[in-house]
Amino acid sequence: MKVGIIGGTGGIGQGMALRLSQNHTVYIGSRLEEKAQAACEMCSYALKVLGLPFDLIPTTNQGVVDQADVVVFSIPAENLERTIESLQGLEGKTIISLMNPMVRADFFKYNPPAEGSAAQQLQKLLPQSKVVAAFNNIPAGKWQKLSEPLDYTVCVCSDHADAKTEVMELVNSISELKALDAGPLAVSPYVEAITPLVINIARFSKKRDVGVYFK
Ligand SMILES: NC(=O)c1ccc[n+]([C@@H]2O[C@H](COP(=O)([O-])OP(=O)(O)OC[C@H]3O[C@@H](n4cnc5c(N)ncnc54)[C@H](OP(=O)(O)O)[C@@H]3O)[C@@H](O)[C@H]2O)c1
After folding, report:
1. Digit-coded pLDDT (tens) for 148-172
2. Are 9 and 35 in contact (CB under 8 A)?
């Protein structure tokens, strides 16, 4: 699969690139191509040292849209609208949202947009694309720790059956991840809200990289 990551230079973007590029073509996107180049070099070095295969290409965020079949939005949710305005050609594509809008006060609070969730906002902004919420609850640190398998369940929500199936296959192709069909995109607020919960657990219980496994 050709998977591109908008904001691929961030913690979660690079973590995903490290795992996904072992059996998919991955485009690391950025607002600045040099930043994507640097992230790509770091990921390539880490994979080379471990003797792992990879297929990684640095590009701009627009380059991601131009070349990838599946586009992951991995930016802070508050920057979504302006980022979409800067991009062309997302129509018809499968779009993954892993964004979890939240604010930090005495604890982390889920802070969804008026549409209900970041994924629903994305679908409203891109009515001709197929938005799928997935990968919301896996900490970046776990994606990046290549010495350990990635052993989580991944809730997948979408109103587009074909795109949901495609993303569930992508999930199941990564390490030990297991995709769970969580229903339509209207369920995505519940999935996004799990992330501030696990971050609060990590903070108050003094644990690192807390995730969830449904069984
Ligand atoms: N971190 C986690 O553990 C984790 C886990 C699950 C889901 N998520 C979600 O994944 C998303 C990314 O998380 P992150 O921790 O990787 O975030 P981040 O490091 O703060 O940002 C990711 C990338 O977004 C781009 N970006 C930053 N500000 C922007 C702006 N104003 N406009 C457009 N692009 C901008 C930057 O890329 P360039 O400067 O290269 O363009 C940056 O490297 C968030 O929505 C978060 O809720 C995070």
Report:
1. 999 999 999 999 999 999 999 999 9
2. yes
171-209 pLDDT, tens per residue? 999 999 999 999 999 999 999 999 999 999 999 999 998
Q: Which residues have a Cβ under 8 Å from the Cβ of 86 and sit 6 or more positions away?
A: 61, 62
Nearest-CA residue for ligand 1 atom 38 is 30
Testing ligand 1's pocket by substitution, the residue of 40, 62, 75 carrying the most ligand atoms inside 8 A of its CB is 75
Q: What are phi and psi of 45, to 5 degrees?
A: -60, -50
Structural domains of the chain, with CATH: 2-204 (3.40.50.720)
Torsion-angle region of 108 (φ positive above 0: left; ψ -120 to 50: alpha; else: beta): beta
